[in-house]
Amino acid sequence: MRLRKLLGIMIAVLAIAGCCVFVYYQINPDSAGQIKIVKNTEMKEKHTPKVPSPVDSISYLDESDKSLDLKSVPESYLDTAERQGELDTLEYETKDYDDDEKEMTKYVVVYTPYDYNPEEEYDIIYMLHGHTGSANTWLGSPDDPNYTKNCLDHLIEDGYVKPMIAVSMTYYDNNEDEDTDNYDRDLLEPFGKELKNDIIPAVESKYSTFAKNTDAKDFIESRGHRIFCGFSMGGVTASYRICDSMDYFRYFIPLSGSFYWSNLLSQNDNKFNSGIYMADAIKKQGYGPDDFFIFSEAGTEDFAYDVVKYQVSDMQTMGNMFKFGMPGEEEVNCAYGIGADEDHDRHGRTTAIYNILPFISNMISE
């Protein structure tokens, strides 16, 4: 009996020691029966999120129009994260598609998440600025990243967004602001050619995405892992891409801008209905309501609030194509978010990204 008790104590001590020392035992196939101890150096400290999930925090602001109450980005998300992604610039060859097709070299700013592994496949978001912006507008530059980049770092670090690549672009020739007399309206539709012909192939030939190669066929097959996001006139551009680039993108985030700032309105006067126009364009591309998700947004202090609301209202008249509601609800393929007290600025678009990107990342993962 005493021997059994002693043996039990010894076993318990060994078990406790095994929990305290991170080792595992591995049989050496070259020496049958020989045991060797190998230190487990791959164990990583578990990260505890600092804020609740945006997905769990969002709610309806007004169920009658299906608007969602977006929460302001937490102050802690504006500071640098512990696990930071990297910014780099990537040059590519393109043409002046809105004019004489003169050849030029431009660059985009590319974000890769913390611990990026070129052997893994990543979702990717393409981001576009508004009037007078640049390729540095969304995330900053490699030498001077901004707090929108910090927010993306935190969303990934806290596990609310799956690690993804982000690309900040410009529609201006030679990466230089153009002195247009109509707030860049003539540049927005032609930019789709530069995006599909030049930017996406250049980026996804260097960085690892779900596109196996850089043929159109591969980009079409991987469209479910690609997002287009635009702010202000970039939001207008996002609406154009819904109408002509759905073969490359499944997810669209038009922020603080709509077709009511485009040339389409002046061409159609007061008869224009952006919902009808978009629904027809989606059908012409061969797609239907099960093939996309659109998340529109504007802040209550944003001078674009009304034009975004007009387009959402137009889309809601086309219920056979666009169904608004809470992301994840049955048959819902559109959402409309409102940022309380948010303006037409960096904080406003960062708040939008903070709320919207976790939803879309979850959809992609499903």
Description:
This protein is an alpha/beta fold and 366 residues long. 33% of the residues lie in helices and 20% in strands. It has helices at residues 2-20, 54-57, 147-157, 185-188, 191-206, 216-221, 233-244, 263-268, 274-284, 305-316, 346-365; strands spanning 23-27, 35-39, 59-62, 67-70, 86-95, 103-112, 123-128, 164-169, 226-231, 251-255, 293-299, 334-339. The strands form two sheets. A ten-stranded mixed β-sheet has the order 3-4-12-11-10-9-7-8-6-5, sandwiched between helices. It has a two-stranded antiparallel sheet with strand order 1-2. It is globular, with a radius of gyration of 25 Å.
**Rg from Cα:** 25 Å
By secondary-structure content and strand pairing, the structural class works out as alpha/beta
Number of β-strand runs: 12
Mean pLDDT: 89
Q: How is the biggest beta sheet arranged? A: 10 strands, mixed
Give the structure's gist in a few sentences.
Helix 3 (147-157) packs parallel to helix 11, helix 7 packs parallel to helix 9 (274-284) and helix 9 (274-284) packs across helix 10. The strands form two sheets. A ten-stranded mixed β-sheet has the order 3-4-12-11-10-9-7-8-6-5, sandwiched between helices. A two-stranded antiparallel sheet has the order 1-2. The protein contains eleven helices and twelve strands.
Features:
366 residues, alpha/beta, 10-stranded mixed sheet, two-stranded antiparallel sheet, 20% strand, disordered N terminus
